Amino acid sequence: MATPPTPGGFDSDYQAVLDYATTQGYTKPSVAQQTIQNQLVVDMKAAGIAWSDLSLFYVMATDGSSEYAGINWADPNNFELTQVGSPTFITDEGFQGNGSSMALNTGFTPSTDWGTSTDVSMGGWADLDNATGTIIGSFDTERTHLIHKWTDGNTYVSLGGNASGTGVETQTDGLWTVENNSSGDNILKVNNSTIDTVGVGATGFSTVPLSIIARRRGGGAYDGWGSSKYQMAFYGTRNVAQNIYSSINTYMTSI
Q1: Alpha-carbon distance 231 to 218, whole Å?
Q2: Does domain 55-244 fall into CATH 2.60.120?
Q3: Sequence-separated (6 or more) residues with CB below 8 Å from residue 241
Q4: pLDDT tens string 132-170
Q5: 25-50: average pLDDT
Q6: Which of 83, 84, 124, 168 has its CA 20 to 30 A from that of 211?
Q7: What are the extents of the domains in the chain?
Q8: pLDDT for the residue numbered 94
Q9: Pairing mode, if any, of strands 154-161 and 143-149?
């Protein structure tokens, strides 16, 4: 059942984002963009995504402030982004790294904050510059990452397993997702088209919090630094990856 609108006309889950921004003193998006963002939430739900399917959902492409861009729409009171090395915030284009020292930490640890369920997907929207970088990910003895380009030119994905890799992929702008199927295989999609299926086995999830732009490792180190523009990121059930493309594509072309 769809979430009823608030008295002000917005979906209650989106209104919760605005309310949180108000309490924190963040600059909210323009009135026009608030309408577009609310429609994004409405469209996602109409596509079959329950808000409970999401653990993380960051809409970083906004004309609100950089602090507003770090709010976790899935749960505004938890897992707000923290900046490492001050990534450049560009209005309506998200955060851009420098390829060497900038990242966004989610504070979300897959092994504990998600658990063991293999009904899982993650991904994000990025304007890529053909350089290295990480859509979202972390790594210790288990890998939970979507690296659009590594230093060897390959794309690497791992979700719920320890194996990783897909080979060289075209650095296409837009939505990159990886979902774990019932066999423990990872399905990489770009703009809703399947690119590769990687057999990783369902062995576990990273015990290190996920980050965006770069991949966080145990001990607080990073690798997989990016210099592209990162505009949205999510973590949730596989239903999200399977049904989010049309809604987020509409949003990105509307701002």
Answers
A1: 25
A2: yes
A3: 121, 122, 123, 177, 178, 179, 189
A4: 999 999 999 889 999 999 999 999 999 987 777 888 889
A5: 98
A6: 168
A7: 55-244
A8: 98
A9: antiparallel
Q: What pTM did the predictor assign?
A: 0.96
Characterise 150 by phi-psi region: left (phi > 0), alpha (psi -120 to 50), beta (else).
Answer: beta
Asked whether the beta carbons of 141 and 132 are under 8 A apart, the reply is no
Return the structure tokens found at 220: 């607080």
Q: What are phi and psi of 241, to 5 degrees?
A: -60, -35
The DSSP result for 77-119, as a single string, is TS---EEES-PEEETTTEEE--SSS-EEE----IIIII-S-S-
Alpha carbon distance 103, 97 (integer Å) = 7
Gap between the Cα atoms of 183 and 173, Å rounded: 29
Query: Locate tokens 């423990």: which residue?
Result: 184
22 token code pair: 């108000």
Alpha carbon distance 42, 113 (integer Å): 26
* pLDDT at 5 exceeding the cut of 90: no
Residue 203 scores a pLDDT above 90:
no
**The predicted structure's pLDDT at residue 182:** 75
Distance CA 105, CA 88 (A): 14
Radius of gyration of the chain (CA): 17
**pLDDT at 204 (0 to 100):** 86
Q: Of how many residues is the chain composed?
A: 255
Token pair listed for 124: 């994000």
Mean pLDDT on 23-47? 98
Q: For position 161, what pLDDT does the model report?
A: 75
Please give the helix or strand (H or E) that residue 146 lies within, else none.
strand 143-149
Contact 232, 135 (CB under 8 A): no
Instruction: Answer yes or no: are the C-beta atoms of 30 and 203 closer than 8 Å.
Output: no
Joined tokens for residue 32: 């026009």
